[in-house]
Design a protein that fits this description.
Immunoglobulin-like, 2 domains, 39 strands, 6 helices, about 5% helix, about 700 residues, mainly beta
């Protein structure tokens, strides 16, 4: 169908695309997304002829807020960017009866097709149609998995970690990292892609932390806020140009208040009284204790009926986990310098420099061969977390609304076994996440909606060693080095990934426009994000002595020592970059049964700067060190063009069958998590090694 109106809209599509492209170069990337729902369809009379000029109104039954539009010359209407909830939709025009569709539930990112057939009559006469939302998507080639708020509440999420919902999508696998530096949350591989780079969106704001974990605490491995999540969606294939991410985008929408006051309260308890004994627990001793309490509640309701609403949520965790570790230690003979050599107990002696480290080992309770034995070590890991969310929604007028949402997530964890299976080198780990989003939405006309958003995401993860043992102070002023004796003997000393402090601040501003023109539902927008990352991670700061065997350990014959060079242990770095996003997406109803999804996304970043200005050796040009002020020699992100193409076919024109195909290119933007370590471990923080 190529009428004049369609041709004009198609021309406008490419003009807008070119405008966004040329105006975005040199700016920064903003993850401009649209996460709410759409109602669209066609209005016809009893003969099947389309009806232009029909007034279509969608009303949210929870808040009483309504939005209306008039059908175009082809009898089509489109109501985009609607808040989630249960709706009734009515169509009316003089000379015809009013038809009302009830029971329509909008989910995150859904395209809900509602067609009307108006009988001849008067507007005062009403025909009511009751039915659920269509289950088959006949408008988009995107592959999405949506989880409702009831499903989120009912599913047995271990630790009430809503990020686990990602695994309900096909083609998603989990990857688990250990240790506090890299975070304790699971990461996810989508369709075989790298387990990083996905977009984690909370109310349109990318809330991922430094390591691209979801919006939660790094130290407890949680993503709290189950009570506050209205719906959760995972996009895993051929989604539109609105969304970034390296092959996956995760959308979570927070709940808002409604005209009726609603709330909840809960407490979940885990206790070792109900647990079986762990495999390594000593059967002659009581089970190591384990208690975990998760508690909280939510409350939402009206401030002013049909206009202003609030929602509050609090969740807390307190846990004490007794752990049993098996330590392999030198036996009593070895502590006196007697070890088996070629099957003969031989006195090799104990070097005076080694004895302080040797005395840190407890005696074994289970003898093994080779001068070593094993002993059980029991201690308790403690942690707590407090999560608070507040949201405010306000309808300023029938054409204007805004909302603001704030999240605070603070947690700490005490680890007695941070550096060794002998609990002498404990560590404290802390997380402090602050997230704020505010958004203003305005109907500029019956066919144009503008949405402006500001976001602030501040995540901080830090850890420090708290157990000080003078015997392992290898450098003046630096406590807690490490000794690795060899022969399978347990390492003694502190975690050499500690201390570290990673603070990241992301400031973003974005603008999205929805424009319905003829057969085209056009969305375009752009975003700018300022990203500031401060890192202090003096790896192997305390020094590491490595031996090849028990014999070389007792004789003080190390294979190597590695540590930060004296006077050159400044590992603090500041990285600064600006990220830009521009996109245009046209969902074109090419015919009654065929919809084309056409989009283009451009997401470059500036070449990040690094402070203090460090130096790298550049042998081809000079034997000396060369100052470096930016992370990369050349900015490869300037070619981050991501086209998207989708085709959707409704073969029977009844919205019950859909044939879909799509194509897309998705860039995983290079972030500080990928390059920071290369600069942390270079001058003015060089690590030296001696064999």
């Amino acid at each position: 169908m190529r009428d004049t109106l369609t041709m004009h809209a198609t021309t406008a599509f490419w003009v807008l695309g070119a405008f966004l492209f040329f105006t975005s170069i040199g700016a920064v990337r903003v993850d401009a997304q649209a996460l709410r729902a759409t109602i669209l369809g066609t209005v016809k009379d009893a003969t099947g002829a389309t009806l232009p000029g029909v007034s279509v109104e969608a009303k949210n039954l929870l808040t009483g807020v309504a939005q209306s539009v008039v059908t175009n010359g082809q009898g089509r209407f489109n109501l985009p960017d609607l808040p989630l909830g249960t709706y009734e939709v009515q169509a009316s025009i003089a000379g015809f009866q009013t038809v009302v569709h009830k029971g329509l539930t909008l989910t995150v990112g859904s395209q809900n097709v509602v067609d009307f057939t108006l009988p001849i009559g008067t507007v005062s006469e009403t025909v009511t149609v009751t039915g659920e939302s269509p289950m088959v998507d006949t408008t988009s080639a995107a592959f999405a998995t949506t989880i409702s708020q009831k499903q989120i509440s009912d599913l047995p999420l271990n630790g009430r970690n809503y990020a686990q919902l990602i695994t309900l999508s096909p083609g998603v696998t989990t990857v688990q990292f250990t240790g506090s530096l890299f975070g304790r949350q699971q990461v996810y591989s989508v369709a075989g892609g790298r387990p990083e780079g996905q977009a984690f969106l909370l109310d349109n704001t990318n809330v991922a932390n430094f390591w691209n974990r979801a919006a939660g605490s790094g130290v407890l491995g949680t993503t709290l806020g189950v009570e506050a999540i209205a719906e959760f969606q995972t996009l895993t294939n051929t989604y539109s140009a609105q969304f970034g991410g390296g092959g996956g985008a995760i959308n979570a929408i927070t709940r808002s208040g409604a005209n009726a006051l609603h709330g909840s309260a809960f407490e979940f308890v885990r206790n070792s009284r109900f647990d079986a004994r762990q495999f390594f627990d000593d059967p002659t001793k009581p089970k190591p204790p384990f208690t975990r309490n998760q508690y909280g509640g939510s409350l939402g309701g009206p401030i002013k009926r049909d206009r202003a609403f609030f929602f509050l949520n609090y969740e807390g965790i307190k846990q004490n986990l007794g752990e049993t570790r098996i330590a392999t230690v030198p036996d009593a003979n070895a502590r006196n310098g007697l070890i088996p050599i070629a099957g003969v107990l031989t006195n090799v002696g104990v070097a005076a420099a080694v004895k302080p480290a040797l005395d840190l080992y407890p005696l074994p309770t289970t003898p093994l061969s080779g001068g070593v034995g094993q002993v059980n070590q029991v201690d308790t890991t403690t942690g707590q977390e407090n999560y608070v969310l507040g949201r405010f929604d306000y309808t300023l007028s029938p054409n204007s609304s805004l909302f603001a949402r704030y999240v605070s997530d603070i947690a700490d964890l005490f680890e007695p076994f941070s550096g060794s299976s002998i609990p002498l080198w404990s560590a404290t780990n802390k997380t402090n996440n602050q997230i704020f989003t505010t958004e203003h939405r305005r109907l500029l006309s019956s066919s144009v909606i503008n949405q402006v958003r500001f976001g602030l995401v501040r995540t901080r993860e830090l850890a420090d060693n708290t157990g000080a043992v003078p015997a392992l102070t290898f450098f003046p002023g630096r406590m807690n080095g490490t000794v690795s004796p060899g022969s399978g003997i347990t390492v003694v000393g502190a975690n050499q990934l500690n201390p570290f402090d990673i603070l990241q601040r992301k400031y973003s501003v974005a603008d999205d426009v929805y424009w319905n023109s003829g057969a085209h539902a056009i969305k375009f927008g752009g975003a700018f994000e300022r990203q500031e990352t401060d890192i202090n991670a003096p790896f192997q700061w305390g020094g590491v002595w490595t031996f090849t065997s028990l014999q070389t350990f007792l004789l003080n014959q190390p294979a190597s020592i590695v540590g930060a060079l004296p006077g050159q242990d400044n590992a603090y770095r500041e990285f600064r970059e600006n990220d830009v996003t521009a996109y245009v997406q046209d969902d074109w109803k090419a015919s009654q049964r065929i919809t084309l999804n056409l989009g283009l996304r451009y997401a470059p970043t500036t070449n990040a700067t690094v402070t203090p200005g460090i130096t790298l050796v550049d042998p081809p040009l000079s034997p000396a060190f060369t100052p470096v002020g930016t992370v990369f020699a050349k900015n490869a992100s300037l070619k981050n063009f991501d086209p998207r193409l989708g085709v959707v076919y409704d073969p029977f024109d009844n919205h019950k069958t859909s044939i879909r195909a799509g194509f897309g290119i998705f860039h995983n933007v290079v972030a500080p998590r990928a390059y920071a370590s290369a600069y942390n471990l270079n001058p003015p923080f060089p690590i030296g090694g001696q064999d």
